[in-house]
């Protein structure tokens, strides 16, 4: 699915795919996010769309799957979310919730499309894997990363003018401070899901009583040999 096969709309001069499924995804995300989180996922989608328009390797990306993946990628990063479980990483909870939504709202999607959407969300914080997966997975990761790096995103792919225009319409709203609070909440209330991933760093630095003693992968792997 490329943009030429679907209707599009302009957002600050940026062409975005505009399908019933994309609109439903935005409505679903809006219903389950506060303003800061909603602005983040919306910006992440737009940044990815910008990159898709500039990088030849993304010429055949499924723009609809990329859009819904970016829009639904953080459904469970708040530990109080109805989609959050006690025993799964927030990326997996978010991917599961997104897949359930897509199965319900887009029964015409095939299993490969559903799997790519799931992978895009589950791997969006794992660049060492995501960038080597399908183009939709890599693009989703890149757009999300760009929302943290802004114009410092490598390669000069995001101009100051583009960034400022998007931020003007979708303000940051104490983005990094609130993200810190959300990730610290995961460390505090479901720490067992954080020991083997980047969220652990927030727990070690900011959460009183958080400890990874005897819980790191190396501890688990080497214990049988002691």
TrEMBL record:
Signal peptide boundaries: none
Domain HD residue range list: 38-129
SUPFAM superfamilies: HD-domain/PDEase-like (SSF109604)
Pfam families tied to this protein: HD
Record-linked PANTHER family: CYANAMIDE HYDRATASE DDI2-RELATED
Protein name (Swiss-Prot/TrEMBL): HD domain-containing protein
């Amino acid at each position: 699915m490329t943009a030429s096969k679907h209707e599009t709309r302009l957002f600050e001069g940026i062409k975005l795919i505009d399908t019933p499924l994309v609109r439903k995804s935005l409505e679903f995300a809006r219903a389950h996010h506060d303003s800061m989180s909603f602005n983040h996922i919306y910006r992440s989608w737009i940044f990815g769309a910008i990159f898709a328009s500039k990088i030849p390797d993304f010429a055949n990306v499924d723009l609809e799957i990329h859009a819904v993946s970016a829009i639904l990628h953080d459904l469970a990063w708040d530990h109080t979310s109805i989609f959050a479980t006690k025993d799964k990483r927030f990326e997996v909870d978010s991917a599961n919730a997104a897949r359930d939504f897509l199965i319900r709202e887009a029964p015409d999607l095939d299993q490969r499309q559903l799997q790519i959407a799931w992978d895009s969300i589950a791997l969006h914080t794992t660049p060492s894997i995501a960038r080597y997966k399908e183009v939709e997975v890599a693009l989703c990761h890149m757009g999300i990363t760009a929302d943290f790096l802004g114009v410092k995103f490598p390669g000069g792919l995001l101009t100051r003018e583009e960034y400022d225009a998007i931020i003007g319409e979708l303000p940051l709203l104490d983005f990094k401070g609130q993200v810190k609070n959300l990730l610290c909440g995961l460390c505090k209330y479901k720490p067992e899901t954080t020991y083997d991933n980047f969220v652990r760093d927030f727990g070690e630095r900011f959460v009183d009583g958080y400890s990874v003693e005897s819980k790191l992968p190396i501890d688990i792997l080497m214990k049988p040999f002691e």
